[in-house]
Design brief:
single chain, 206 residues, Rossmann fold, 6-stranded parallel β-sheet, globular
Length: 206
């Protein structure tokens, strides 16, 4: 959760008046390179959502994460809705392994009934644009797609793009904050503050 990208997102979201609650997956906590089994990852996500709710019960709640964290969050939501969560923010959703294009990893998304935001780099090797568009079309109005020009899976950009990684990070955070802001005004919210969004880890999904 202290990965530079995750830290940058938390800082920039705070600037946009969006609080974040970061957490570690168990395998990251012990320093293992082998990802947790889905059931373990899902349990960690549910624990984080529960903790965020206790810390700020009046705030509208959104969940999500980067790559593996986002995929595990969407899987958890598809198995059983995460309590009080109003939408999912998926940064660099890992649709398929590098050079192995497919849509199998997206099968569970059809079982999700809350809004979904996909922020994806146009050079992301883990999400072929045409396949991602195919998935999003099948999800209908529930899914919102925001491409990030010239960005790769880590939201890094080439020098010749004319932009820095930091500028791209700001774009990603602003996009997420704007989307969240449009969806937070529902009956459960009674406060004037902004949402807490649990965020997964920054591991690249392979």
């Amino acid at each position: 959760m202290t990965h530079p990208f995750m830290a940058a997102m938390a800082e920039r979201l705070a600037e946009a008046c969006v609080s974040t609650f970061r957490f570690q997956f168990p395998y990251m906590e012990v320093g293992s390179k082998r990802p947790d089994r889905p059931a373990v990852a899902h349990a960690a996500i549910r624990a984080a959502v529960g903790k965020a709710t206790k810390l700020a019960p009046a705030l509208p709640l959104f969940a999500g994460g980067k790559s593996f964290g986002g995929r595990m969050t969407s899987q958890a939501q598809s198995v059983e809705p995460l309590p009080n969560v109003r939408g999912l923010v998926l940064l660099g959703f890992p649709l398929h392994p590098p050079e192995k294009p497919s849509v199998e990893r997206a099968a569970h998304l059809s079982d999700i009934r809350i809004p979904l935001l996909f922020i994806q780099g146009t050079r992301d090797a883990l999400a072929q644009p045409a396949l991602l568009q195919e998935v999003l079309k099948s999800l209908g109005k529930r899914a919102t797609y925001r491409p990030v020009r010239d960005a790769d899976h880590s939201f890094g950009v080439l020098v010749r793009s004319g932009r820095s990684d930091q500028q791209v990070f700001s774009e990603v955070a602003e996009t997420a904050a704007t989307w969240i802001g449009k969806r937070k005004a529902v009956p459960r919210s009674s406060g004037s503050r902004t949402p807490i969004r649990p965020v997964g880890n920054a591991r690249k999904d392979v």
